[in-house]
Amino acid sequence: MNKQLIFYVIASLVILSGVAIAASSYGVVNVYFNVPSDTQFTIAFPTAWTARTINANTEATANLTAEYITFNFSGAAPQYWVEPWVNGSSGIGSQSAASNRPIMQLDPTGNVNISFRIKHNWSAWPPSGLALAFNATAATGNCYQTITNTPTNMTMTYQLIAQNVNYSRADCQINVSLWGNWTSGNAGQTDTQLLINATYPTS
């Protein structure tokens, strides 16, 4: 909580014969305001770019978005760099590198620069023959310090999406793309969860 300290000083002027008395006196007191850092951010998906607020502070209480992401492979393996859909829908709800449309946007909405990291959360995933990769882009000019712009295979350990993302610029959303690679395996459906972490300090 911010605390405001107000000081009142009442000075009485005493007149003594033959003695010069200052008409004013001044004192200085340092006052410190401590504001907690806020690493809140939003996630938006291309179906409508509706911002979902993310403000949980532990993995156990992580905010679950209403949207889900699907990779729909067709034909025979191998298939590489397949782009995902949101809620199983193609068209505007899908990622499209050709149209510069990512699968999600991350936007810092707190009061400090933050770093984004990502991992998958299933120890038995990916099954043999499947791999999930990610990369990111953003506006240039003081939007970030470092960004993972080359597709990188995801693991169970947090990997950097973007470092030191500028919270004070309205155009500094981080555009995240996902890529599915299928080299072999039986038909069926498997799933995992993605965890996205925002941290401050940003190192």
Outline the fold blueprint.
Layout: E1 41-44, E2 52-54, E3 69-70, E4 79-82, E5 85-86, E6 89-94, E7 104-108, E8 114-120, E9 130-137, E10 146-147, E11 152-153, E12 159-165, E13 174-182, E14 194-199
Antiparallel strand pairs: 1-2, 1-7, 3-5, 4-13, 5-6, 7-13, 8-12, 8-14, 9-11, 9-13, 10-12
Provide the β-strand percentage band: 25-35%
The gyration radius over C-alpha positions equals 26 Å
The overall strand count is 14
Spatial shape: elongated
End-to-end distance: 27 Å
In total, the number of domains comes to 1
Structural class by helix and strand composition: mainly beta
Give helix and strand order, one letter per element, not per position: EEEEEEEEEEEEEE
Quaternary structure state of the chains depicted: single chain
Low-confidence stretches: 1-16
Please, how many helices?
A: 0
Overall mean pLDDT stands at: 85
Mind describing the biggest β-sheet? 7 strands, antiparallel
Helix content: under 10%
